[in-house]
Design brief:
One of its GO terms (molecular function) is diguanylate cyclase activity. The chain is of the alpha+beta class. The protein has two domains: 3-149, 2-Layer Sandwich (Beta-Lactamase), CATH 3.30.450.20; 156-323, Reverse transcriptase/Diguanylate cyclase domain (Alpha-Beta Plaits), CATH 3.30.70. The chain contains twelve helices and twelve strands. The strands form three sheets. Strands 2-1-5-4-3 form a five-stranded antiparallel beta sheet. A hairpin with a 5-residue loop joins strand 4 (111-119) and strand 5.
Length: 324
């Protein structure tokens, strides 16, 4: 076999590999006009090499951020350095639809890419070569895992029945606020409340009815919250609300509004209409408190006083009354 025949044979299988390899291969000249376009790019874009030859890249693919890509390629052209893009920073260069059945949840193909310089015999950079990798499987798996972990983290914070923070997470927030107030001269107030005669509701209508009442009161709590307030389910039928940067007079107005909202509830259960009321206790943070549990105890004192006074009331309690 002659050298010419060997060269032709090598070129043939090289071209065959170039067309069938499962990565995108694109070569641009320094004016960003397409010179080479392999089978992967043709299959995913629907454009043949003849259709794209000498076309300006950014005219054909308007989704590409031209300023960003030129900044990415400048070091490749000027310094002969390689450049890389990863899907975490930018999902794709070429917006191709995703056709893989395993990763069908992804609308578009996630891509990593390598960009490197091609030089002539004198070492001058004349072209840019892009290698495009389809990393949709990896990206979707990572995103699903992160989403699942995010949901799990959220579930550890939320009370299932009410959708409010659970006691553990709510108390963490209270502790953080307590530490902040110990350092700075701010005013925040703690509100504790529970549903009056809740055992009677359970005994009369059943625990499912009790759950409906708990949910309805939680909705009333949520509807009366401001953006900065932090509400949680503290116990079975007991709720706690941290009113940040709120003095006790302001908090008393919010508490009274909440009390009235609950009093007006009409809770439908098994063709019956149930009602509910709450007793509320308030305590403002005091510099003499040494731990956050003293704040909870002070608000609880107000709650107990509301119950002792006949329930369905709001009572403000001062810390010095706890220690005095």
């Amino acid at each position: 076999m002659s050298h010419a025949q060997v060269d032709v044979s090598e070129i043939h299988w090289l071209m065959d590999m170039f067309q069938t390899v499962d990565v995108g291969l694109v070569v641009l000249n320094c004016d960003y006009r397409i010179q080479v376009w392999n089978g992967f790019m043709e299959n995913h874009s629907g454009l043949t090499p003849r259709q794209v030859r000498d076309r300006y890249l950014f005219d054909l693919f308007s989704e590409i951020d031209e300023d960003w890509l030129r900044r990415k390629c400048d070091p490749v052209l000027l310094l002969k350095n390689r450049a890389f893009t990863i899907w975490e920073q930018r999902p794709y260069i070429f917006k191709f639809r995703n056709y893989r059945p395993i990763t069908g949840s992804a609308e578009y193909m996630y891509q990593n890419s390598t960009i490197f310089p091609l030089t002539d015999t004198r070492g001058k950079v004349t072209h840019l070569c892009f290698i495009i990798y389809d990393v949709t499987d990896v990206a979707v798996s990572r995103l699903e895992l992160e989403s699942m972990n995010g949901r799990l983290r959220q579930l550890t914070k939320i009370d299932f029945l009410t959708g409010l923070f659970n006691r553990g997470h709510w108390e963490e927030n209270l502790l953080q606020e307590f530490k902040r107030l110990q350092r700075y001269n701010h005013q925040s107030t703690l509100l504790m409340c529970d549903i009056d005669h809740f055992k009677r509701i359970n005994d009369t209508y059943g625990h499912a009815a009790g759950d409906e009442v708990i949910r309805a009161v939680a909705d009333a709590v949520r509807s009366n919250l401001r953006a900065t307030d932090i509400a949680g389910r503290y116990g079975g039928e007991e709720y706690a609300i941290l009113l940040v940067d709120t003095n006790i007079e302001q908090a008393a107005c919010l508490a009274e509004r909440l009390r009235q909202s609950v009093e007006q509830l009409k809770i439908n259960y098994n063709s019956q209409q149930l009602g509910a009321t709450i007793s509320v206790g308030l305590a403002q943070h005091d510099k003499n408190m040494t731990e956050h549990r003293q704040w909870i105890e002070a608000a609880d004192k107000g709650l107990y006083q509301s119950k002792a006074a006949g329930r369905n009331k709001v009572t403000c309690h001062r810390f010095d009354e706890v220690t005095g």
